[in-house]
Amino acid sequence: MPSEPIQDNKPKRGQPCPCGSGQLFEACCEPIHLGVKPAANAEQLMRARFTAHVAHNFKFLHDSYRPTAGKPYVAEEGEPAMTWTRLEVHGHEVVADQPDKAYVDFSAYGTEEGVEKVLHEKAEFLRSNGAWLYNREARLGPAPIRSTAPKVGRNDPCPCGSGKKYKHCCLVKG
After folding, report:
1. What distance lies between CA 5 and its chain's CA centroid?
2. Eight-class DSSP state of 40
3. φ, ψ (nearest 5 deg) of residue 14
4. What are the Cα distances from residue 157, in Å, to 147, 150, 162, 173?
5. pLDDT of residue 150
6. C-alpha span between 76 and 38 (Å, rounded)
7. DSSP classification of residue 64
8. Residue 70: which region, alpha, beta or left (left: phi > 0; alpha: psi -120 to 50)?
9. 118 in Cβ contact with 141 (< 8 Å)
């Protein structure tokens, strides 16, 4: 029984960068991986780190992670089970009173044993000596859903339609 060919999704020059920026790999993440230019901001580093996962460039991941940056890199044995396929960046925010701290909210998609999985994370990045570094996971999973409906006041008519005030109806039931 013939096996399926192994899909090589590692980044190549002349092809779109796996990070989803819309640029070619050699104009996007490759210069950051090679150390030719630093990531301009936390989002650009996040995209370069995703591409490093795709490319199995574990030294770059080691060097761009604050707890291990500057320490000698030692390769680990074995291949990761996840094959990363695409990245969606939902938001990038620099902390107003701390310009060297930023957050990137993203979803990274991959396949493991033929099943698509997603990692949704809000990651914290810190700039140290002019270079952005991934610091930690600030939140795992999507952002909490916040209701946009106006809050019902205690003396407002109950939204259930009973004709009673909210405090004498559904507020006491809750």
Report:
1. 29
2. S
3. 85, 0
4. 19, 13, 8, 15
5. 80
6. 25
7. T
8. left
9. no
Q: How far is CA 71 from CA 3, 67, 95, 111, 128, in A?
A: 41, 9, 28, 31, 15
What confidence tens digit (pLDDT) does each residue in 35-60 have? Answer: 999 999 999 999 999 999 999 999 99
Tokens of 83: 């094959």
CB-based contact 55:33 (threshold 8 Å): yes
CA atoms within 13 A on the CB side of 98: 11
Domains of the chain: 25-143 (3.10.450.50)
How far apart CA 127 and CA 134 sit, in angstroms, is 9
- Which token pair is 137? 């996971």
Regarding predicted confidence, which is higher, 148 or 15?
Answer: 15
DSSP strand E in the chain: where?
83-94, 101-112, 115-128, 131-140
Tell me the longest C-alpha to C-alpha distance in the chain.
73
CA atoms within 13 A on the CB side of 56: 12
> In this structure, what token pair is assigned to residue 39?
């990531």
Length of the chain as a residue count: 174
DSSP code, position 114: T
pTM over 0.85: no
CB–CB of 17/54 below 8 Å?
Answer: no
Q: Rounded to whole angstroms, how far apart are CA atoms 87 and 21?
A: 9
